[in-house]
């Protein structure tokens, strides 16, 4: 640990106050006990929205503010409160700098895989020691033992919590205080990994012994059907939407933009409208848990409604971001079966409300039934024609636009999400399995931390292509969801029958990844993938 002289003119009490100011910036914004009325982001297969950076970029992934908030799920939006300056105004940490710092925290994996570190960064062992110390002694005492005692610089201490701040490079150490406070707050609210669970066989034992499993799913469980996810760099839906010229592709699913110009959404809606009633082996696995009496609930961010095709029952399913199964008129609230607007969606058209049309016909039958005049009559009746056009325009304005009941950014999640998690699931769950989502959209992204906040002893397993950087799971199984599920079922002695399932003659390889609890699970390369054999695009 290094020793660095404090900036000139900085008193110990100033240090503590500055760092604690950063800690106090984060406040709960989504309450489970009393749901806030504030608009929340949506999410989609998951909706675009499927995975805590909505298009306004929430970079805090839900952490309880303190013990009094143990029933809160927070999406951790940064406070807009104006911050007081540091000793050097040029290094004043604005909210935009905070956001940039935490975007790095989200995207970079710190600490290092080995114990070697740069002079101004904490090594892996140092980072773990600081993290342990923080939890043992609490925030105020931690600040006293580190910053006040000048045993380590604020700049270096930031790296112990996974945060590098290049835009403050060369500035005084007190410029880092408030950002350090935010990093400390995040750390205090993070889930702590359970050390006794690490291997694939541990995951199997947990699976076999659990009786109330929460399964959280995202777009990754549907990609083997050819349904795109949203954030894959090359084939994800957002990458495909770059041609629209939006400042952020996620704006396609912004409710304010939809109300202003629904053509943008309907120009791409056909790309995410499910055209299949098939389901994947992973969906089949969730159904198997239900049939075995082990499924407490499936919280899905997906809007493809495939869970229903797989046979997952309504009382076991929370569609956090809605689905295409129904649609609602944005003018009169008339609700219809989603099938009624699917033809328009597939044609790239804006579906209109039948109830509004019927009402308009009853009120102004002549305006809708009037036939066009001939050119001769038009010349003689210009004034009447102009009046007719105005009347037809008025009628058109009264006909509402149908919107699929998927939750856009800026819309509240269904009440069932909050009610179910608060009243039933958090007190009953004995295992959490997260499958096929990077957990980047609040408040669904907060489920692991919320459950852990109620009981830190509940094991949690993560299954996806890439590791989760911002939540500490006990076991991470990395690979195609269907392949990982196949191996879990094989080891558990469960027979998962599905046309796309890994065949008995195929070999699944297991390799340890970066950490002792991370495992790569994949079909050996010399064997043809199930997706290719079934003629399903392997580019997804």
From TrEMBL:
<keyword id="KW-0479">Metal-binding</keyword>
<dbReference type="GO" id="GO:0046872">
    <property type="term" value="F:metal ion binding"/>
</dbReference>
<protein>
    <recommendedName>
        <fullName>Deacetylase sirtuin-type domain-containing protein</fullName>
    </recommendedName>
</protein>
<dbReference type="InterPro" id="IPR003000">
    <property type="entry name" value="Sirtuin"/>
</dbReference>
<feature type="compositionally biased region" description="Basic residues">
    <location>
        <begin position="53"/>
        <end position="64"/>
    </location>
</feature>
<feature type="compositionally biased region" description="Basic and acidic residues">
    <location>
        <begin position="65"/>
        <end position="74"/>
    </location>
</feature>
<feature type="domain" description="Deacetylase sirtuin-type">
    <location>
        <begin position="193"/>
        <end position="495"/>
    </location>
</feature>
<feature type="compositionally biased region" description="Low complexity">
    <location>
        <begin position="84"/>
        <end position="96"/>
    </location>
</feature>
<keyword id="KW-0520">NAD</keyword>
<feature type="binding site">
    <location>
        <position position="353"/>
    </location>
    <ligand>
        <name>Zn(2+)</name>
    </ligand>
</feature>
<feature type="compositionally biased region" description="Basic and acidic residues">
    <location>
        <begin position="12"/>
        <end position="22"/>
    </location>
</feature>
<dbReference type="GO" id="GO:0070403">
    <property type="term" value="F:NAD+ binding"/>
</dbReference>
<keyword id="KW-0862">Zinc</keyword>
<feature type="compositionally biased region" description="Basic residues">
    <location>
        <begin position="367"/>
        <end position="381"/>
    </location>
</feature>
<dbReference type="InterPro" id="IPR026590">
    <property type="entry name" value="Ssirtuin_cat_dom"/>
</dbReference>
<dbReference type="InterPro" id="IPR029035">
    <property type="entry name" value="DHS-like_NAD/FAD-binding_dom"/>
</dbReference>
<dbReference type="InterPro" id="IPR026591">
    <property type="entry name" value="Sirtuin_cat_small_dom_sf"/>
</dbReference>
<feature type="region of interest" description="Disordered">
    <location>
        <begin position="51"/>
        <end position="96"/>
    </location>
</feature>
<feature type="binding site">
    <location>
        <position position="332"/>
    </location>
    <ligand>
        <name>Zn(2+)</name>
    </ligand>
</feature>
<feature type="binding site">
    <location>
        <position position="356"/>
    </location>
    <ligand>
        <name>Zn(2+)</name>
    </ligand>
</feature>
<feature type="region of interest" description="Disordered">
    <location>
        <begin position="366"/>
        <end position="395"/>
    </location>
</feature>
<keyword id="KW-0808">Transferase</keyword>
<comment type="similarity">
    <text>Belongs to the sirtuin family. Class I subfamily.</text>
</comment>
<dbReference type="InterPro" id="IPR050134">
    <property type="entry name" value="NAD-dep_sirtuin_deacylases"/>
</dbReference>
<feature type="region of interest" description="Disordered">
    <location>
        <begin position="1"/>
        <end position="22"/>
    </location>
</feature>
<dbReference type="Pfam" id="PF02146">
    <property type="entry name" value="SIR2"/>
</dbReference>
<feature type="binding site">
    <location>
        <position position="329"/>
    </location>
    <ligand>
        <name>Zn(2+)</name>
    </ligand>
</feature>
<feature type="active site" description="Proton acceptor">
    <location>
        <position position="321"/>
    </location>
</feature>
<dbReference type="GO" id="GO:0005634">
    <property type="term" value="C:nucleus"/>
</dbReference>
<dbReference type="GO" id="GO:0046970">
    <property type="term" value="F:histone H4K16 deacetylase activity, NAD-dependent"/>
</dbReference>
């Amino acid at each position: 640990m290094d020793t660095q002289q404090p900036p000139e003119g900085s008193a110990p009490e100033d240090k503590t106050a500055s760092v604690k100011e950063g800690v106090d910036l984060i406040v709960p914004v989504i309450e489970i006990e009393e749901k806030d009325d504030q608009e929340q982001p949506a999410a989609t297969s998951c909706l675009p929205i499927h995975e805590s950076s909505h298009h306004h970029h929430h970079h805090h992934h839900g952490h309880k503010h303190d013990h009094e908030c143990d029933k809160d799920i927070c999406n951790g939006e940064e406070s807009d409160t104006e911050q007081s300056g540091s000793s050097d105004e040029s290094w004043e940490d604005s909210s935009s700098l905070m956001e940039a710092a935490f975007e790095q925290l989200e995207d970079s994996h710190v600490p290092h895989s080995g114990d070697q570190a740069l002079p101004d960064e904490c090594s892996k062992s140092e980072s773990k020691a600081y993290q342990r110390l923080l939890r043992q002694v609490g925030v105020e005492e931690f600040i006293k033992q580190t910053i006040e005692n000048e045993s380590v610089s604020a700049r270096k201490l930031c790296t112990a919590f996974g945060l590098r701040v290049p835009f403050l490079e060369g500035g005084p150490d007190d410029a880092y205080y408030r950002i350090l406070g935010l990093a400390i707050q995040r750390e205090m609210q993070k889930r702590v990994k359970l050390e006794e669970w690490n291997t694939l066989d541990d995951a199997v034992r947990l699976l076999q012994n659990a009786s109330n499993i929460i399964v959280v799913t995202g777009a990754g469980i549907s990609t083997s059907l050819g349904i795109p996810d949203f954030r894959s760099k090359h084939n994800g839906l957002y990458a495909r939407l770059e041609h629209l010229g939006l400042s952020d592709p996620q704006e396609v699913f912004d409710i304010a933009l939809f109300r202003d110009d629904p053509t943008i959404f309907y120009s791409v809606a056909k790309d995410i409208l499910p055209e299949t009633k098939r389901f994947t082996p992973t969906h089949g696995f969730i159904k198997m848990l239900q049939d075995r009496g082990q499924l407490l609930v499936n919280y899905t961010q997906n809007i493809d409604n495939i869970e229903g095709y797989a046979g997952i029952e309504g009382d076991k399913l929370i569609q956090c971001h809605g689905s295409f199964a129904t649609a609602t008129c944005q003018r009169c609230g008339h609700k219809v079966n989603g099938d009624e607007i699917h033809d328009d969606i597939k044609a790239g058209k804006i579906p209109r409300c039948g109830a509004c049309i019927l009402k308009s016909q009853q009120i102004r039958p002549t305006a809708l039934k009037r036939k066009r005049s001939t050119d001769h009559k038009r010349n003689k009746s210009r004034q009447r024609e102009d009046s007719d056009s105005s009347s037809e325009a008025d009628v058109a304005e009264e006909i509402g636009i149908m919107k699929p009941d998927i939750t856009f950014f800026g819309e509240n999640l269904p009440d069932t999400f909050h009610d179910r998690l608060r009243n039933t699931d958090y007190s009953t769950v004995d295992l959490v399995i997260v499958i096929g989502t990077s957990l980047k959209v609040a408040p669904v992204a907060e489920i692991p931390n919320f459950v852990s906040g109620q009981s830190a002893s509940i094991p949690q397993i993560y299954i996806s292509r890439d590791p989760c950087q911002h939540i500490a799971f006990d076991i991470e199984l990395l690979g195609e969801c269907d392949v990982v599920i196949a191996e879990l079922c094989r080891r558990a002695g469960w027979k998962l029958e599905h046309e796309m399932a890994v065949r008995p003659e195929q070999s699944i390889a297991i390799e340890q990844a970066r950490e002792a609890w991370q495992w790569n699970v994949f079909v050996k390369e010399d064997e043809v993938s199930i997706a290719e054999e079934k003629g399903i695009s392997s580019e997804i």
